[in-house]
């Protein structure tokens, strides 16, 4: 087998250039595949500058019966065009909360981040789905971070604020994913219950050599300091990138340098052994 999560079966290779017929086929196969249990949860660890594992991001994969492990870049955008993204999103949240609860029973404070698609979040039932998953799994809300994007926040702000406040009151945390790639207005950061900013990997990777990316990273860190937000850098691949970040501020690292996404059960077994549970 290839490296976890990095296999791209030829059939699904052209993630951007799918024809309508291919997209339709992927949608149909995914719709049938989710109830058959074909989704897989992968986890990628996040580390503090001192090397403590402080959490992990949940990243979905699709174990296709013929085509092997399919990356989310191929099927998440297609799922996002219909309510399939709701089904997928609930499955991922359920798995993540189940793992949080399993870890907690072993005395381990596992914190997981889950990607939330705007289409899923905008559904009126979103908050009740989240509460239902928390109730059923027994996961502690404070161990769950929802990663949303700036694009979500831009439209229908009052509805988004109300929903976020309600979930935040339960203890759920919010992170702005791909921060810096969307709109430039920062006013919403004060209005919304946001706990964390995630610096997109394009900035992280270029910052050591590109002065404008470096300035952007420094600005994000300054904003985060002002508003007392946690910062996670994604896509850290080299020691040079990690050192650059550490020299500029307090940053949690996520990237291939520290660990690739791996199947959740493998990852949990390894991690609980290391944590001495
Ligand atoms: P994202 O949320 O920005 O996730 C980070 C992506 O960067 C992941 O790709 C991760 O594997 C990859 N990555 C992590 N470290 C490194 C690194 O050091 N170098 C490089 N080059 N890449 C790194 P992945 O798992 O293929 O996911 C792609 C996108 O698919 C995610 O981007 C997210 O937008 C979406 N996605 C993944 N899982 C879910 C999910 O459960 N729900 C939703 N709605 N979207 C998801
Ligand atoms: Ca993410
Ligand atoms: Ca990203
Ligand atoms: Ca993203």
From TrEMBL:
<protein>
    <submittedName>
        <fullName>PAS domain S-box-containing protein/diguanylate cyclase (GGDEF) domain-containing protein</fullName>
    </submittedName>
</protein>
<feature type="domain" description="EAL">
    <location>
        <begin position="23"/>
        <end position="275"/>
    </location>
</feature>
